[in-house]
Queue: 2 jobs
Job 1
Amino acid sequence: MPQISQLFFKTAVICLIVGLAMGLQMGISGNHIVIGAHAHLNLLGWVTCAIFGGYYALNPSKAGKKLAMVQYFVYTLGLIVMLPALYFMELGNRQLEPLVGIGSIIVLVGVLLFAVIIFSRAIAVVPEAGRA
Ligand code: HEM
Ligand code: HEM
C-alpha cells in the first residue's frame, strides 16, 4: 500500500478511536451536546480519510504525485483545526466559532485538491523487477 494510504488510514483510525470514545461518553452520560464533533470526527475523519486512503491504494499512479502529499497535509491540518475547536465550542466556548470556520475552509481546500488529483492525468508507474 502506498505511503499516503498508510498515512490516511493511520489518521482515520485515530479519528475513529476518539470519535467512538466521544460517542460512548455521550451515550453513557446521556448528554449529547458534542453530537457535531462526534459526527464530523467519524465522517470527515474516519470515513472520508479511509476513502482517500482507499482511492490512493487503488490508484498508485496518483499516490506518487507530490500534490497527493500536499492534499494529505492540508486536509489533516483542517481536521486538527476544525474538530477540537468544534468540540470545545459545543461545550460552550462560543468564541471558538471562527476557528471552526477556518478549519472547515482548510478541509474544503483539502477536498478541492483531491478533486484536482482525481481529474489529473495518471503518471506512469514502473513495475518492480520480477513482478508482472
Ligand atoms: C461506539 C460507537 C458509537 C457510539 C456509542 C455512538 C453514539 C452516538 C450518540 C449518543 C449520538 C447522539 C444521538 C442523538 O442525540 O440523536 C450519536 C450521533 C451520531 N453518530 Fe454516533 N456513535 C458511535 C459510532 C459512530 C460512528 C462509527 C459513526 C460514523 C461513521 C457515527 C455517526 C454519528 C452521526 C452522523 C450522528 C448524528 C446523527 C444525527 O444527526 O441524528 N457514530 N452517536
Ligand atoms: C467542512 C465540512 C463540513 C462542514 C463545515 C459541515 C457543517 C455542518 C453543520 C453546520 C451542520 C449542522 C449542525 C447543527 O445543526 O448543529 C452539520 C451537520 C451534519 N453534517 Fe456536516 N459539515 C461538513 C462535512 C460533512 C460531511 C463530509 C459529512 C458526511 C460525510 C457530514 C455529515 C453531517 C451530518 C450527518 C450532520 C447531522 C449531525 C449533526 O447534527 O451534527 N458533514 N454539518
Job 2
Amino acid sequence: MTELKTLIGTVRIRNPIILSSGIWGSTYSTLNRAYKEGFGAVTTKSVGLNPRKGHPNPSVIYIPEIKSILNAVGLANPGYDAFSEELREINPDVKYSVSIFGSSSTEFQQIIQHMDNNLTGNTPIAYELNLSCPHAKKVGIAVGTDPNIVYTIVEACKVRTKVPIWVKLTPNITNIKSVAESAISAGADAIVAINTIKAMMIDIHIKKPVLGNISGGLSGQAIKPIGVRVIYDLYERFGSEIPLVGVGGISSWQDAIEYILAGATAIQIGSALIDYDAPQTLIHNILNGLNEYLSREGKSFSQLRGLAHE
Ligand SMILES: Cc1cc2nc3c(=O)[nH]c(=O)nc-3n(C[C@H](O)[C@H](O)[C@H](O)COP(=O)(O)O)c2cc1C
C-alpha cells in the first residue's frame, strides 16, 4: 500500500480526496457518513450570516450527455447560528472544513468567531471561504473577482482565527492569478479551485430558460479540463509556495492524477457522487487506482505533484 496521507499546509488528512462543498454537506449525519465512506476530509455546504431559502425551482438539473450538473441553488442555508448547532453533532474523529460565504470582511469575521466559539469539541481543519459562487447576489463572485476585496476579506479572517483559511476561487474571471496572489499575500493557507462555471440551458419546447434563476453554475465532467488548466496556471505561477486543492469534474483515479500532475496537493469531489448509489464505491475505486498507479511509478503521492511542468 502506498502512503496516501496528505499534508495541506499544516493540515494532515488520511488521504487526498475531500468531499467538496454543497454536496452531502448540509447535515452532520451526511458529513459523518461521507467521512465513514472513506473521504480524507469533508466540506460543509456554504453557510452565511442569515437563513436563505435560495433560488426558485428548478434549481438542480442533471445533464446526462455530459455527466454534468447545472445548479442555481443560490446558497440556501439555515444561517450560521443554526448551522453551528448542527456541526456540533459531527463525530469527533471526522476531519471537516466549514465553507463560509459573506458580502464583507465583517460578515466573514462574525461567522468565523461564532464557529470558533462553538466548535470547540471537534475544531474544523479549515474555514473555506467561498469567494466563487456564480449565482448569488452580493456574495461569491461578487466579492471574489476583485483582488482588493479578496485581500481585505482574507486578511480579516486570518486575524480572527488560528484555524487555517482556504480560499475557493472562481474560474469566471480573466486573470485568476491576480486574485490568488491577493489571497496568498493576505495569508491564505491554501487555494481551492474551481467553483462552478456560469452557464444556462433553454427549454426549446417552452422557449424559456430551464433554471428558475435563469442562469447557474456548471459542474461535473464537462468542466474538468478547465479545472486542470486553472490548477496548472496556479502551479506555474506559485509552484509549491502554496497548497492547491483541485476540484472540478473528478470522477476517477485518472482524473485525480491529472490534477496532481497539474500541481494539486489534494482534490475535491462533488458532482460525481450523483452517479453512485454510495460514495464508498467511488472513493474505493479512486484510492485503489491511486495506489496502483503510484506503485507502478515507484513514486509517493507528493512526488507526483506538478510533474507535468517539468
Ligand atoms: C448542487 C451543488 C451545490 C453546490 N454548492 C456549493 C456551495 O454551497 N459552496 C461552494 O463553495 N461550492 C458549491 N458547489 C460547487 C462544488 O463544491 C464544486 O466546486 C463544483 O461543483 C465543481 O466540482 P465537481 O465538478 O466535482 O462538482 C456546489 C455544486 C453543486 C453541483
